[in-house]
Amino acid sequence: MSSEIKAPNAILDSRQSRVQHISDTLTQARWARTVLDSFPGELPADLDEAYAVQDRSISVWDDQVVAWKVGGIPPEMRPVLGQDWVTGPIYAKRQKTASQAPVRMPVFEGGFAAVEAEIILEFGDLRELTSSSLSAAEIVPYIARCYIGVEIASSPMPDINKIGPLAVISDFGNNHGMIVGREIQQWSPEILSSIEVKTYVEGKRVGTAFPPAPPAGPMGAAAFLVSNLKRRGHAIPPGLRVSSGALTGIHDVLVGQHSTVVFDGIGEIEIEITALQCGD
User: Fold this and answer.
1) Domains with residue ranges and CATH for the chain
2) pTM of the predicted model, to two decimals?
3) What does the pLDDT look like over 251-276, one tens digit per residue?
4) How large is the greatest C-alpha to C-alpha distance in the chain, in angstroms?
């Protein structure tokens, strides 16, 4: 056998070593609130390896997963990766409820931070669901509630989005929190798509959009998530929430800045971006 050809066990060992190194480096950076100059070593070889990194990190993180974020893969990379979406966990300590006062959301100062307007979906009982592959239309009966909301994206890696989806998946989906706002009563996919959403940073409007209709948009994101979690062996209990994708864009923010997200006819959410401190 040529010395240039790796045996299957050697390839597996190399993969496991890479997964462990990436996971350990990223989780330690998050625990220590430190910024990383670059991605730790080689990128995962594919989506499966990136999710292996994420799953290993989830297994050592001391908090309960109460929701998942879903985000889009850039169109030019979808044929390469064979997928339209990415996902990552949202933890109990990072889930907050909107109020009249601005919600303080800590981020990695010097790392990446962004505000994203989102529709948040809450699953009902999926225990009788036998299929692991649903369409956006088929997922609708399994959505119990919908809310307006905001995802706070943040990572110790300032260039995480430039590095690409494999880096995003590896680092908890580039998530660092979710704000749950007012419930959308008597919702339907059509009603969701009729809501004008506006995002402001420091009083300047930085994005305006309507939630996309199925098969994209919130329902498409929820259908993808069910398939992804079932394939990875993660539970989907009643009440699990989905932050279903940036509506007006991914808007970079800095510590000390203020953002407002407005869902016309329903409500708005005020956010104050703060520096992540020990104990947060």
Assistant:
1) 8-275 (3.90.850.10)
2) 0.93
3) 999 999 999 999 999 999 999 999 99
4) 68
